[in-house]
Design a protein that fits this description.
The protein is mostly helical. The chain is built from 13 helices and no strands. The longest helix has 29 residues. The two termini are 31 Å apart.
Length: 276
Amino acid sequence: MSLWEFFVAFILGMVEGATEFAPVSSTGHMIIVDDMLLKSKEMLSEPVANTFKVVIQLGSILAVVIVFKDRFFNLLGLKKRTTAHQQGSTQLKLSVVIVGLIPATILGFLFDDYIDEHLFSVNTVLIALVAGAVLMLIADKFAPKYVQAETVDEVTYKQAFFVGLFQCLALWPGFSRSGATISGGVLLGLSHRAAADFTFIMAVPIMAGASALSLISNWEYFTPDVLPFFIVGFISAFIFALISIRFFLVLIDKIKLTPFAIYRIVLAAVIYFVFL
């Protein structure tokens, strides 16, 4: 592979990792960086380019698993309960996470083909960028005065289910999973940090499942000539997602969602006026 191809793999992995879990829409950024600038589908066949995007998404998912490894060990019963839990404090239950996953899982299964055919266009992504920004502004403006769940351990089944309904908005490319679910969580009485933590934890099974199915159906494209491209992108996405997630979790309770909403509107304007 050429040096340019390695550079493209690195940049795409960086963009995916840096934006996948921030509420700014990784799809919108990919439109600018890949579809309009780097054009990886011109150096790779379209199926291989699409498979590559699944691979780098797995790099981002692995970063979430690393950041929340103790949470996942607890959820799966692979780690002893903490002293605080033994003294009576609650901890997030796997069943609460499952309840949050139900709406988007069902809707995604039913409308996956429709979404692929009708919602993956620059115009629909632009609309989703702005619509998601509006929801985030609404969440910051009309958040309940009293937080009902300061930490993710206090999320109830009811809150989990309705956050899951908000997650369905993320099936619309460009809306942003974290933007939709954090906004929904805040409107439902979660703190910004609790909503972010719950968003990231929910994202792992639903994204990993969808990515695994996609990889199984596209396994034939893992050929020796493109494997280095895939590996570079995966590692890049993992590293930058790790940095992005840790940075975002420190910031979210301090700056809330409004700065990200403004950024999304500016991004949509750039795509519209510069690239269309």
